[in-house]
Automatic annotation (TrEMBL):
<dbReference type="InterPro" id="IPR036442">
    <property type="entry name" value="ProQ/FinO_sf"/>
</dbReference>
<keyword id="KW-0694">RNA-binding</keyword>
<protein>
    <recommendedName>
        <fullName>ProQ/FinO domain-containing protein</fullName>
    </recommendedName>
</protein>
<dbReference type="GO" id="GO:0003723">
    <property type="term" value="F:RNA binding"/>
</dbReference>
<feature type="domain" description="ProQ/FinO">
    <location>
        <begin position="1"/>
        <end position="112"/>
    </location>
</feature>
<dbReference type="InterPro" id="IPR016103">
    <property type="entry name" value="ProQ/FinO"/>
</dbReference>
<feature type="region of interest" description="Disordered">
    <location>
        <begin position="97"/>
        <end position="120"/>
    </location>
</feature>
<dbReference type="Pfam" id="PF04352">
    <property type="entry name" value="ProQ"/>
</dbReference>
Length: 120
């Protein structure tokens, strides 16, 4: 799923999760809140779609870099749940470092396929 599609899907039904077009830091357990709310309101979203949207967006560099200790994290309704603890910030920083370290590998893997297409 493309990030733009995930943003469109979630922001349509839960605009409180966004500020300035960016996904706010999410509270632990927000996935279950979204599942319950989608069921309660009979939204045309399966658990699988919600899961994919969250997975797509919470693994972006932008989202991970926003998980800073002391910053508020939000519930599905846009209310503040708590503040991000230092251990969650450390985990996000480590994940961000792994993503950035893998970037050159992924780009190298894509490059030959792109060059091959140009030759034919």
């Amino acid at each position: 799923m493309r990030p733009a599609d995930a943003v469109q899907t979630l922001s349509t039904h839960w605009p409180g999760l966004y500020a300035g077009g960016q996904l706010r830091p999410l509270a632990i357990g927000v996935r279950e809140q979204l599942f319950a709310d989608a069921e309660r309101r009979a939204l045309p979203l399966s658990k699988k779609v919600i899961r994919r949207c969250l997975k797509t967006l919470t693994r972006t560099e932008t989202y991970l870099s926003g998980l800073t200790a002391g910053v508020a994290c939000y519930n599905a309704d846009g209310s503040v749940e708590s503040l991000i603890p230092p251990e969650r910030e450390r985990a996000a920083t480590a994940k961000l470092a792994r993503i950035q370290a893998d970037k050159p590998k992924k780009q190298a893997a894509k490059a030959p396929a792109t060059d091959e297409k140009k030759e034919h």
